[in-house]
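By way of example, we now present a protein record of this kind:
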Amino acid sequence: MLVPLYEAVYGRLDVGPATRLLGLGCGSGLALLMAASRGAAVTGVDTCADRLDLARERLLPEERQQQAPAGARIVHGGPGDAARADASAYTLVTAFEPIGCRVGDAERLAGLLAGATPLAGRGAAVVLAGWGPPERCATASVLRGAAGPAEPPHGRDGWRPTDRDDLERVAERAGLRPDGSGRVACPFGYADVDSAVRGLMSTGLFDPAVAAADRTQVGKELTEALHPYVRPDGTVWMPNVFRYLIARTV
């Protein structure tokens, strides 16, 4: 769903063979694969073993290692673990998992950046991503409607509205210098409601709600929240706008 965001950032920064990219929270590795296809050497870090397995299948397929992107690395853990895998300086750090919908998002990202920015060269680009204005993100209302009731309203992982300066605050806290921003349309489309529920649940955004209630109950609430976005043919379509900030290490 975030492919337009990745494409916009990589095009703007001219990602290519000269790029050494560190992807924070790389998930299943799609953004890394797109950068590698442009010639970049990529390293992805994440703490979710299941998603990292998918990333390895995409970037390091054992049955065709000779076709794997040169210099691709998948690391379980955080930025410090990436440093132990390769001490060379990165020219680009990306944090594409959008912040702004949960209490604690900014703090979690700031913690990742604290370990990642020392691994980047001076003047390296650091890309942060966030949800756009709530009124332009259909999925934001779905997240609020489905996750909110199951979570404490002001708890560590509870819902909170997106603020337009979220990314700038994180960059300032990390000692980064803002160097441009942009907005990208990233609609979420699914073949049917069941596919939408599975897709949204797989993001991890509903994990706290599942822990507080149960998966079946959260699924029911999510199905109800999706109702306004079901089209006559049964497909689900949610227009969204995401924002990115490009900052520089100093």
In short: Confidence is low (pLDDT under 50) at residues 149-156.
